[in-house]
Structure formats: structure tokens, C-alpha cells
Specification:
Mean pLDDT of chain B: 89
Largest sheet of chain A: 6 strands, antiparallel, barrel
Radius of gyration of chain A: 49 Å
Distance between the termini of chain A: 171 Å
Low-confidence stretches of chain B: none
Number of domains of chain B: 1
Number of helices of chain A: 3
Low-confidence stretches of chain A: none
Order of helices and strands of chain A: HHHEEEEEEEEEEEE
Strand content of chain A: 15-25%
Number of strands of chain A: 12
CATH superfamily of the largest domain in chain A: Rod shape-determining protein MreC, domain 2
Structural class of chain A: alpha+beta
Distance between the termini of chain B: 17 Å
Oligomer: heterodimer
Number of domains of chain A: 2
Helix content of chain B: over 70%
Strand order of the largest sheet of chain A: 1-2-5-4-3-12
Helix content of chain A: 25-40%
Strand content of chain B: under 5%
CATH topology of the largest domain in chain A: Thrombin, subunit H
Number of helices of chain B: 7
CATH architecture of the largest domain in chain A: Beta Barrel
């Protein structure tokens, strides 16, 4: 009897017995009451799990947002890469088109000059330059096939370039105005004194045969005089850069206005043009009109 | 290691294996029923250890229902399993097994009773449901697994003999 009483006490055997009763009775009640306890349990479990579900929902939302951001970032990166490739392509295109743009601009200016000079002017492209060499010149892509002959004047919008030195079947060579063996009939814009321009190389030239009695100022424009029958009168050649008085004549140094090292297109004057075709580029000084009958 | 301790551990190991097989055989309900009956009626019952008996039986019941997931309210099978395992354990203590034939006959009778009890408990918990054919497969295969368990658990000199 004492042993039986100890089985129901709070000892290991009793605890096992209580656990067994609780287990069996709990299962029986759970099964007997059917779905209602299940619903209550599910509701209670849902209530308890609500904070965790909220946290999980926020966590999932954060992850979705992060995924979306990563996707957006990847798209932006891809777009950036595409745009960089596009920019590089455009830059390459611009670099490829730059010489044509420069040439088109030059052609446009050449066309303007052609409209100003009422002569039958031809155009040609400079395909090569031998200027750094001794007695070098510029090679044009036109020759006898385009009706060119030696001693035709060559000019660009900035000023006179030189004359045709030799003409081949399909190419010609220009003797630039700064060549040592080049000469050009010029006159000074203000004093109207005439002389002969001889090249000194490097875009410079000297005017010979100007009396030291003439008054020549630095910066004075130098124009063609038309006396050589290569250029008509009044085309700009350059500007006086230095004047030194000599025993008999002035040593006048001229800076040529045409950029001889950067010429791509030129205009060709007709052979032996008329002396006067237009007013000089630099307007002469305005003299007061003499009254009729006045001495 | 004494004989009862070794036998208990072997029985626990077999219980665990059966439980795993109940889980793994979920795609094959007939085979699953065999392992379930084997666990509840032959492996879980221990004379003098009702709590362990009930726990293994409940585990087998929950494993079966959890793997099936067919009932709207679970719990009927573990309750019936616990009841049957406790009954078998009490019977084993009250009328000890003497030979293989008695063991097989008792298992067959208990298998039928187990089928009825489980069906009733599940009906009570989850409502009407089909009988299925698992009980028939358990009965058909009973000679095989009953004999095997007899050899594994009770072969050799009886622990009750000195």
C-alpha cells in the first residue's frame, strides 16, 4: 500500500504517471472536441505570431525594395554603359567629321570671297605641302585637266597665297608668296607706294624698291598693285611688321596674312586678270570733294 | 550492458527507424500503414514503461497524420495509437508472450482492433473518412514483420527465466 501511495507522489515514478495521464487525456480532449479547439489554438497562435509576421513582412518588404534597388541600379549601370558607348561613338564620329567641317567652313568662306570678286574663279584642294623644304610649295589636285596654266594667281579669304609655278597633267605646284624666289607687285594701302614683294620664308616677305622718302607705318596693309598681271589690284597680301630706313630705300618687312601652312582649299584667278576688278579691301582715305571751278 | 538495457536500446532504435520509415513512406500509404502498425503494436509497447510507450506511439500517430495531411483536424490517430500501445503493453505484462504463434495471433487481433480504434478516433476528431486498405496490407504482411520482430526482440532465452 505504501508502494502504491509513493507512485502517486511527487517522485520520478509519479511524475511519469502524471505526464502519461496528461499526454493521453490531452490528446483525448483534443480529438474529442474536434475542430473547435483547433480553431481557438490557431487563433491564439496567429495572435502570438502577429509581431513575428509583421517583422517578417517588413523584412520581406525591405528585401524586395533592396532587390528592386539592385535591379534599378543594374539597369542604370547598363544604361550608363550604353550611353558611354554611344558618347564614344559620337565623339568618334565628331572626330571623323571634324576635318570635313573645317573644310566645309573653309569652302563656305571661299564661296563668299568668290562672290566678292567678279571674275571667273576656279577652286582646288591642297593635297600636299612641301613648304618646310627648300623652295617648297603647295601641291594642288588640279592641273591641265582643269585648264590651269602657270602664273595663275592663288588666293584664300585671308589673302594672297602665291602663284602657280608648274602645272602638270592633274596636279599643280604653288609658289607661295613667302618663297625666296617669289615676287609680287604690291602697294601700300595708305601711302599708295608700290614695290616688289620678295619672300623671306616662314610667312614673311620684304617689299623692295620703296623710296626712303615714303612714310610707311607698321601695321599698314599691303595690297596687290596689279602691275604683275597675276593679281588684280587691291587684294590683301599682308601687313607691315617692320620698317627700317636704308640709304636709298626702306626695308619693309611684311607679315603675310594668308596662313600658308594651314591651307586646304584655294581659289585660282584666271590667267592675266584685268588690272582693276574691285575696290581695295582697305578703303582709301576720304579726300574732301573739290568744288567745281575751284583751283 | 545487461540484457534488459540492451533490449530496450534495440527497441528504441527500431522505433526510431520505423518512425523515419513512416515519414519516408508518405508517398506510399499502404507501406506506410504497415510501418505504422508495426511501430504502434509491436515496437512501442514496453512492459513497465507506459510513458515511453505512449510517447513512441504518439510520435508514430503524429508522423502518420502529419505526413498524410488529409484530415481537417489532426490528433485522432496519435490518441488511438497511444491507447492501443498502452493496451498492448498492459496485455504483455498481464499475459506474457510465450511463442511465435501466440505473438502473431495477438498481433493480428490487435491490428484489427487498432484499425477500428484509429478509424473511430479520427472520425471523432476530423469527421467521416474512408477506411482505406492500409489495414489489409498490414494484416497480409503481418507474418513477415511479426516473425522478424520476434527474432529481433524476443528470440533467445526468455528474460523472465533465471
Amino acid at each position: 500500500m505504501a508502494v502504491r501511495a509513493s507512485n502517486w507522489g511527487w517522485n520520478p515514478a509519479g511524475r511519469r504517471r502524471y505526464a502519461l495521464i496528461l499526454l493521453w487525456t490531452g490528446h483525448g480532449l483534443w480529438a474529442f472536441f474536434g475542430q473547435r479547439p483547433g480553431e481557438l489554438w490557431a487563433r491564439a497562435a496567429g495572435l502570438v505570431a502577429r509581431p513575428a509576421q509583421g517583422a517578417a513582412s517588413r523584412w520581406e518588404g525591405w528585401r524586395e525594395k533592396r532587390r528592386e534597388q539592385a535591379r534599378t541600379f543594374a539597369e542604370v549601370q547598363a544604361e550608363n554603359t550604353r550611353l558611354q558607348a554611344r558618347v564614344a561613338e559620337l565623339e568618334l564620329g565628331v572626330a571623323r567629321e571634324a576635318p570635313r567641317l573645317v573644310e566645309a567652313d573653309e569652302a563656305d568662306r571661299l564661296l563668299g570671297l568668290r562672290r566678292q570678286i567678279p571674275l571667273q574663279l576656279g577652286a582646288a584642294r591642297v593635297i600636299h605641302s612641301t613648304r618646310p623644304e627648300a623652295f617648297g610649295g603647295l601641291i594642288l589636285d588640279a592641273g591641265r585637266d582643269r585648264g590651269l596654266v602657270p602664273d595663275q594667281g592663288v588666293l584664300v579669304p585671308e589673302g594672297v597665297v602665291g602663284r602657280l609655278w608648274s602645272v602638270g597633267a592633274s596636279q599643280s605646284k604653288i609658289l607661295p608668296a613667302d618663297a625666296p624666289n617669289a615676287s609680287l607687285a604690291v602697294m601700300l594701302a595708305r601711302s599708295r607706294a608700290t614695290g616688289v614683294l620678295q619672300g623671306l620664308s616662314s610667312g614673311r616677305a620684304a617689299i623692295r624698291y620703296i623710296s626712303n622718302q615714303e612714310v610707311v607705318q607698321v601695321g599698314e596693309a599691303v595690297l596687290t598693285s596689279g602691275l604683275d598681271r597675276v593679281f588684280p589690284r587691291g587684294l590683301l597680301v599682308g601687313y607691315v611688321s617692320e620698317v627700317v630706313k636704308g640709304d636709298l630705300e626702306l626695308h619693309v618687312t611684311v607679315q603675310l596674312s594668308a596662313p600658308l601652312d594651314r591651307i586646304r582649299l584655294v581659289l585660282l584667278l584666271p590667267s592675266q586678270p584685268p588690272l582693276e576688278v574691285q575696290e581695295p579691301f582697305v578703303a582709301p582715305e576720304q579726300h574732301p570733294a573739290r568744288k567745281r571751278g575751284a583751283p | 550492458m545487461s540484457r534488459p538495457v540492451a533490449q530496450t536500446r534495440r527497441q528504441d532504435l527500431l522505433c526510431g527507424l520505423s518512425l523515419v520509415m513512416v515519414f519516408l513512406c508518405a508517398p506510399f500509404p499502404r507501406l506506410q500503414a504497415v510501418f505504422h502498425v508495426m511501430l504502434v503494436l509491436a515496437l512501442a509497447p514496453r512492459v513497465g514503461a507506459p510513458l515511453r510507450t505512449a510517447l513512441w506511439a504518439a510520435a508514430g500517430g503524429w508522423a502518420l497524420e502529419g505526413a498524410l495531411r488529409l484530415y481537417p483536424h489532426l490528433g485522432g490517430t496519435p490518441w488511438a495509437d497511444m491507447t492501443m500501445a498502452l493496451l498492448v503493453a498492459w496485455m504483455a505484462g498481464r499475459w506474457p508472450i510465450e511463442n511465435l504463434k501466440g505473438w502473431l495471433a495477438r498481433l493480428a487481433a490487435l491490428a484489427l482492433l487498432h484499425t477500428v480504434v484509429v478509424h473511430g478516433a479520427v472520425r471523432l476528431a476530423a469527421g467521416p473518412h474512408p477506411w482505406g486498405s492500409g489495414w489489409a496490407w498490414a494484416l497480409l504482411s503481418l507474418p513477415l514483420w511479426g516473425w522478424a520482430l520476434w527474432r529481433l526482440l524476443f528470440a533467445g532465452p526468455s528474460p523472465r527465466r533465471p
